[in-house]
Amino acid sequence: MGAYFSEIFLGLKSLAIGLGITFREFFKPVVTVPYPYKTLKMCERYRGHIELVENEEGTPKCIACGMCQRACPSGCISLASKSVAYEVEVKGEMKTKKKKVLTKYDLNFTTCSLCGQCIESCNFDAIVFSKEYNLASSRKEDFHFDLLNRLKERNS
Amino acid sequence: MSLTILNAIIAVVAAIAFAAVNAAYLVWAERRGAGRIQRRPGPNVNGPFGLLQPPADGIKLMAKQLVIPGGADKALFMVAPVLAMVPAIMSFVTIPFSENIVARSMNIGVLMIFSFASLGAMAILLAGWGSRNKYGVMASVRAVSQNISYEIPMLITVITIVMMTGSMDLEQLVAAQAGGIWNWNLIPSLSSPLMPVSFLIFFICSLAETNRAPFDLGEAESELVAGFHTEYGSMGFGLFFMAEYANIVIGASLITILFLGGWDCPLGLFPGVWWFLLKIYLLIFSFIWIRWTFPRTTIYGLLNLSWKILIPISLFNLLLTAGLLKVF
């Protein structure tokens, strides 16, 4: 008989403790973020698709050496360049030199495995992982990124 | 003659309106409350504080097609949601909100409400049986056994109260408790020292009667899909949903009338409908609070609680009160 009543009493007590906990939680601030309206800052080491880095003049740091293209195991980077002549002063006299300028940098994100070999291989720190994660589409063409164009849009 | 018919129509329309508005906004309150308890905001996109969420849900439910599953008993399938809603609305007719606000005052109000409340189990049984779905049938069997076992302690507790007051009229039950908190049935008196216990028993039974968590075995999502309304979409589901919330309001009103002095103020000042509404919404908040605190019981735990604890204690309380009423 004593066990019967003590069981009821202990049961009621545990229920009251549970109610107390939820009552306290009721008045605490919310911890969720209403996603489309507010977003959290992405963490430092997040790997989105790659992105070109610009120099001080607003043009890509990339010298179009093609190391990233060769390093990519999935073959999803394709870039093109052209030679541009420019004048530079060497020991008091003007000389004409040539350099490569990036004209196309396409990333096929559908086959990219985000391994980061391209970034490892780049000697000029000209590409980084972006923090872009809002990627959703029903067409695969939407994942063929023109990174040069993205850089221009970012600057404009 | 025509005036009484008009009166009856107005009373029923008012009862339906009160039930519908309450059902709609209690869903909102439930979702907001659940959100707060789980540290998230709940529905807050449609309108200020998400207040336009219930109309949006209602329009969505009404716009959907009513699908009757193949092999279902068509008549029972269609009748069940209506049968769930009608008793809930009917019970509102006799509930006194204050001295003057009562649609139809009856001298057997308590009896009427409990007879309508037991029809709710019938609706669940028909819904599960009529939809020809094994989850539905299992859920109905559970819900019916639950309703039967919880109606017993509930009614024994009500008999105790009726014995003390000597009336089944809800208005007289409130009148007997008038004049402040010390007159309420909740407070133990010389003739009924176990009143807080019977309040607790009645509270637990009203939770079980409305099929709410932690006693929501009739719609145990994790094991029975959606329980007895698995096959219901559109407004069929909507009616079950509204009936659940209307039953919550009735349960809270009954607790208020039987134990908390109805429209009486705790200090005996300004009795009126506001006290009644304040009390029922506090009780409804505690219903929501309990739902989002406790996990679901097992069917054995549920039946054991009723047959081994609630019924013996309420019977003992009945005998004790009967004896003490003779003495004092």
Index terms:
heterodimer; A: 156 residues; alpha+beta; Alpha-Beta Plaits; three-stranded antiparallel sheet; 4 helices; elongated; B: 328 residues; mainly alpha; 0% strand
Q: What is the fold's blueprint, element by element?
A:
The complex is a heterodimer of chains A (156) and B (328).
Chain A: H1 2-26, E1 50-52, H2 67-71, E2 77-90, E3 93-108, H3 117-121, E4 127-129, E5 144-146, H4 147-155
Chain B: H1 2-37, H2 53-63, H3 74-94, H4 109-130, H5 134-165, H6 170-175, H7 195-209, H8 221-224, H9 234-259, H10 273-291, H11 299-327
Helix pairs in contact in B: 1-2, 1-3, 1-9, 2-9, 3-4, 3-9, 4-5, 5-7, 5-11, 7-9, 7-11, 9-10
Can you describe this structure?
Chain A has helices at 2-26, 67-71, 117-121, 147-155, and strands spanning 50-52, 77-90, 93-108, 127-129, 144-146. Chain A has 156 residues and is an alpha+beta fold. Chain A has a domain at 50-155: Alpha-Beta Plaits (2-Layer Sandwich), CATH 3.30.70. A three-stranded antiparallel sheet of chain A has the order 2-3-5. In chain A, strands 1-4 form a two-stranded antiparallel ribbon. Chain A is elongated. Chain B has 328 residues and is mainly α. Chain B has one domain. Helix content of chain B is 67%, strand content 0%. Chain B is globular. Classes of the chains: A alpha+beta (156), B mainly alpha (328). Chains A and B meet through helix 1 of A and helix 1 of B.
In a few lines, what is going on in this structure?
The complex is a heterodimer of chains A (156) and B (328). In chain A, 28% of the residues lie in helices and 25% in strands.
Helix content of chain B: 55-70%
Uncertain stretches of chain A: none
- Report strand order across the widest sheet of chain A: 2-3-5
At the fold tier of CATH, the topology name of the domain at 50-155 in chain A is Alpha-Beta Plaits
The major sheet of chain A is characterized as:
3 strands, antiparallel
Mean pLDDT of chain B, rounded to whole units?
83
Number of helices of chain A: 4
Largest sheet of chain B: none
Order of helices and strands of chain A: HEHEEHEEH
What is the strand content of chain A?
25-35%
Q: Structural class of the helices, strands and pairings of chain A?
A: alpha+beta
How far apart are the first and last residues' alpha carbons of chain A, in Å? 82 Å
**Largest two-chain interface:** A-B, 16 and 15 residues
Total count of strands of chain A: 5
Spans of chain B with pLDDT under 50 lasting ≥5 residues? none
Helical content of chain A stands at 25-40%
By DSSP (H or I, 4+ residues per run), the number of helices of chain B equals 11
